[in-house]
Design brief:
With about 140 residues, the chain is α+β, with helices and mostly antiparallel strands. The protein has helices spanning about 5-15, 55-75, 95-110; strands at about 25-30, 35-40, 75-85, 115-120, 125-130. The longest helix has 22 residues, at about 55-75. It is globular.
C-alpha cells in the first residue's frame, strides 16, 4: 500500500486490510514509501482516560504499551492507526483515545522509533497527531 498523505492512507486502509474493527490499534510497518505488513492490537478500555489522570492510570496500560513498543522497535518505521467508536470531540488530543495515542507516541519517540504517521479514525471524523493541527 502506497500513500502520499494521511487522508489517502486512512481512505485505503479499511479496504486494503479487510478490517474495520473498532477499538483497535493497527501498527503498520514501512519499507521505504510502501507499507509491507503490520499487526492489529485490541485497545485497552480508555473510556475514563483524561490528560489529568493518565499518569495515575498508566499502570493499567503498561503491559499493553510494552507490547506496542516492542513491536514498533522491531519494525523500525511505523504508522499507528487507532480505530475507535469513542468520539474525538472538538479537541481530538483530549479525547480518551487521543490521550492514549499521545502517551504511546511519547514512549515511541523516547525509544527512537521512526513514526511515519499517528492517526485516529472515529465515528465522528479522523485526526492526525504527527503535526500540530488535528487532521479532521
Amino acid at each position: 500500500m502506497n500513500s502520499s498523505n494521511s487522508a489517502n492512507l486512512l481512505a485505503a486502509f479499511p479496504t486494503s486490510t479487510g478490517a474495520n474493527t473498532p477499538e483497535t490499534l493497527f501498527i503498520v510497518f514501512f519499507d521505504g514509501d510502501s507499507a509491507n505488513g503490520g499487526v492489529r492490537c485490541d485497545l485497552p478500555d480508555v473510556s475514563h482516560l483524561t490528560r489529568e489522570n493518565v499518569d495515575d492510570e498508566w499502570i493499567v496500560f503498561v503491559n499493553w504499551a510494552q507490547t506496542v513498543a516492542q513491536t514498533a522497535v522491531k519494525a523500525g518505521r511505523v504508522a499507528l492507526i487507532y480505530n475507535t467508536v469513542h468520539p474525538l470531540t472538538d479537541a481530538p488530543s483530549v479525547s480518551p483515545v487521543g490521550v492514549l495515542a499521545s502517551s504511546i507516541t511519547r514512549l515511541l519517540n523516547r525509544l527512537n522509533v521512526e513514526l511515519d504517521d499517528v492517526c485516529i479514525i472515529s465515528q465522528d471524523g479522523w485526526a492526525r497527531f504527527t503535526q500540530e493541527d488535528d487532521g479532521r
